TrEMBL record:
Name used for this protein in its record: Putative hemin ABC transporter, permease protein
The keyword Cell division appears for this protein: no
Organism name: Pseudomonas syringae pv. persicae
Membrane topology: Multi-pass membrane protein
Listed SUPFAM superfamilies: ABC transporter involved in vitamin B12 uptake, BtuC
Lineage: Bacteria, Pseudomonadati, Pseudomonadota, Gammaproteobacteria, Pseudomonadales
Length: 170
């Protein structure tokens, strides 16, 4: 699939190709206030639903048997969480492009700060993710100014370093 996308970029109109390439590398530079209504509603709704599923997510941390013995419909909860997370992710990727590693780094950091209880973990991870994105966006915009370094490149570099650190630590 990526080969087809790359071939289309290579053979296509260069102005359109640069816009698509920038989206594929991820960035906040194309986001405008009027485009934020749908993502805001989607993410806030999803966040509230996930926060409400905090106890169920905690039960799932104990394994399927433990969750089932606590009366949890494991398959239904997993499907619901998958659908909510997919919808939230899809809307944000449509707006900002692919920005990798944030969703992998932030939960590890948040879990070290507040533990694994999801009703505390979700707000902290949300704030840390937002702070990380703001910080990386500022660095990406100033590092090679007046050009914008696509934020996906910066988060990939940071994420790679983070996971090398995590691997060496364990």
């Amino acid at each position: 699939m990526m080969a087809i996308a790359n071939l289309s970029l290579f053979l296509g109109d260069h102005r359109a190709s640069s816009s698509v390439l920038f989206w594929m590398l991820g960035g906040l530079g194309l986001a405008r206030w009027e485009l934020l209504v749908v993502p805001l509603i989607t993410v806030l709704s999803g966040w509230v639903l996930l926060q409400g599923l905090g106890r169920s997510l905690n039960a799932l941390m104990g394994g399927d048997q433990t969750a089932t013995s606590l009366g949890l419909q494991v398959r239904n909860v997993r499907l619901l969480v998958f659908l909510i997370a997919s919808l939230m992710t899809g809307v944000l990727v449509a707006l900002c492009g692919s920005i990798g590693f944030v969703g992998l780094m932030v939960p590890h950091i948040a879990r070290r700060l507040v533990g694994s209880e999801h009703r505390r973990l979700l707000p902290v991870a949300t704030l840390l993710g937002a702070l990380l994105m703001i910080w990386v966006d500022v660095v990406s915009r100033t590092l090679i100014a007046p050009e914008d370094l696509p934020i996906g490149i910066a988060t990939a570099l940071l994420g790679g370093l983070f996971f090398i650190f995590m691997m060496k630590r364990s």
